[in-house]
Model the fold of this input.
Amino acid sequence: MEKRVTFKGWLLPLFLIAPQVLISAVFFFYPAGQAVWQSLFIPDPFGLSAQFVGLGNFEFLLGDPYYRASFATTAVFSLLVTLCSMVPALFLAVIADRLIKGSGVYRTLLIWPYAVAPAVAGVLWMFMFNTRVGVVSWYLGQLGYDWNHVLNDNEAMGLVVVASAWGRVSYNFLFFFAALQSVPRSVIEAAAIDGAHFWRRFFGIVLPLITPTAFFLLVVNVVYAFFETFGVIHTITAGGPQQATTILVYKVFADGFVGQDLGSSAAQSVILLLVVGLLTVIQFKYVEKRVHY
Amino acid sequence: MAQKSGMVEKGGAGVWLTHLLMMVGVLVVFFPIWLAFVASTITQPEIVSPPMPLLPGDQFWENYSAALLSGVNVPVATMLLNSLVMAIGIAVGKIIISLLSAFAIVYFRFPGRTTFFWMIFITLMLPVEVRIVPTFEVVAGFGMLNSYSGLILPLIASATATFLFRQFFMTIPDELAEAARVDGARPMRFFIDIVIPMSRTNIAALFVILFIYGWNQYLWPLLITTDPQMNTIVMGIKQMFPSGDDVAEWPVIMATSILAMIPPVFVVVSMQRLFVRGLVDSEK
Done:
């Protein structure tokens, strides 16, 4: 894609593009280069010198049971967040789509959680399930269930998953709703005349037509679960109990800033860069497909 | 969006059931916010002896003024101001540098154009979370810890906005640029008189998205603001919890949580149409 009509001169455009290039260079390329560079060294405990270890940090990481566990935790976490945010959103969108009047009001109300920061969402859910004062945990206690996400791995994971998925339900709802609204009515009516009832129409016609949206949301939600849920985890569990909710991004922070293990943290950054790159490629491949659709 | 015809819709009970399901869904989604609001209007003893009530109490002014004027470490009013500066700084900064660079890339042929284009493109792939340690060192090296520029600058270089504007500029008819050139208009005249006014809606939609992005930042302010005076509200809430066994000031913390969500919720709800458009555009 190129413009036919352009302006002459090269000084002005360089001047125009300079701010963005400069900021990218200073705050993106230099730090990313540093991350790659630091990942090849192990600094001594006083930070005075560093020893070159080649790929040693990576070898160590890939053999480290804690790091592998963090990989597994991240996989489980992203899968659950994606499921827990997409399924209810699709359900709500299908219901809203059936309404002739009033869907605008519901949409306005359902958008709210999207605007709530993940860290604030973490505080809200932590408050509900707090072991001392939480309302939900208290009622669970009345029912005979002793809720304690501070000690129980699965409960901790469940809580960070729900708190992370909560705001995404809004986001997914908007996209599903828009997709459902754009399904041609004539197709659905034709099926209705042929005697297909609601669920038959939904699985046979509507669902295949909104698959591109669903796939797009799948990728976007996985990216979200990987990189934007730090606030939720930091406010609710701080990666615990033990390491039960330490996802990869949290571990970069914990090892780099809390543990001061810079070589390992840098190597983890580099691995994450590869993961981001892969996810971006998938996203773009898909976007290309959607353009030709 | 086609209006639904009556043919596939059920009347009577079906519609009511649909509304009922929808209301249950909205209630469930809303419950955490409601509970936080209730907690921000009652007293500490009511909260620490569970179960807390589910309807608002009469301590609204007491709790909110306690939060705004004194807070726990720092008045919440200060944190709100910091968040506002950060969110607007990020949104406006991103929009300005992206407009300029997209204009340069679309309307000029200059040496290094392709290289710069790819440079910007690659930044799409680098969320701040994966390069925190070295970025922190850069910002510390510049002496920008605990400053607005340290909060804003590392977050304004994202390629998303540049791409959005590039896509949009490509759709501006060539005749307009041709006419401007024939009239002897300088490129910047064309940019200011034609391109910017035509991009108004895109700019507004992007502003909504970027404002929320900036307001909701957590990790970055957590790292670089060691001085409570520079805390933003989203990261400041966590700092209000005492370490150890002390009991948290729940009413004040919950009032702060509500205050932290008011600006982004207001922006999203009042500019709903722009917001949905911005969301769809920026994810394309």
